[in-house]
Amino acid sequence: MSVQITVNGTDHEVDLDPQTPLLWAIRDALGLKGTKFGCGVGSCGACTVEVDGMALRSCAIATGDVAGMAITTIEGMPQGGGLHPIQQAWIDEQVPQCGYCQPGMIMAVSAMLKETPEPSDAQISEQITNVCRCGTYPRIRKAIHRAAKAMSA
Ligand code: FES
Ligand code: FES
Predict the structure, then answer these.
(1) Edge-to-edge strands of the sheet including 10-14?
(2) Final residue of a structural domain among 76, 110, 140
(3) Among the listed residues 84, 82, 134, the one whose alpha carbon sits nearest the alpha carbon of residue 107
(4) Which residue in 21, 52, 136, 143 has its CB near the most CB atoms, within 10 A?
(5) In the prediction, which pLDDT does 153 show?
(6) Could you tell me if residue 125 is left (phi over 0), alpha (psi between -120 and 50 degrees) or otherwise beta?
(7) C-alpha–C-alpha distance, residues 73 and 150, integer Å
(8) Residue 45 pLDDT more than 90?
(9) Which residue from 37, 39, 133 has its CB within 8 A of the most atoms of ligand 2, so it is best to mutate?
């Protein structure tokens, strides 16, 4: 069996059962290792990717269910040869500690800023539910505000 998926603007025919979680299509079939496995049950957000602009937890969605939709992973974030403003804000605010949660965190933030370009602290708390075991939440919040400012300039 195979499924056609579109990841970071490129179409791929992946040879797997359509019920396979999207996370494994991304990591194992396509070799894109930026998207992380954490809990495997849709709770931590380490595996977050964008699908048609919405943040989805790829461990909890079947590959066949997103066939033909536009999937973006952390590898697809750089723009025009440079970092995406969210990635730049993450560097400027020195957000990552171990870094493991951060690709999923950035993808969740990317989706949020499409809907809510200038989020309040309360909106950030409500919408970004990804888990960071290193406790980088205060820096994440600062980086989101920095990215929002850069993207609206
Ligand atoms: S690995 Fe998918 S939500 Fe935790
Ligand atoms: S930076 Fe280590 S889990 Fe978030």
Answers:
(1) 10-14, 3-7, 70-72, 48-51, 54-57
(2) 76
(3) 84
(4) 143
(5) 83
(6) alpha
(7) 21
(8) yes
(9) 133
Number of domains in the chain: 2
Of 49, 76, 103, the last residue of a domain is 76
pTM over 0.85: yes
Q: Which domain holds residue 32?
A: 3-76
Report the percent of the chain where pLDDT is more than 70: 100
Q: What is the mean pLDDT of the segment spanning 3-21?
A: 98
**Pocket of ligand 2, candidates 37, 47, 101: which has the most ligand atoms within 8 Å of its Cβ, to mutate?**
101
Q: Whose CA is nearest to atom 3 of ligand 1?
A: 42
Q: Residues near ligand 1 with C-beta < 6 Å?
A: 37-40, 42-47, 57, 59-60
Q: Which two tokens stand for residue 85?
A: 């403003």
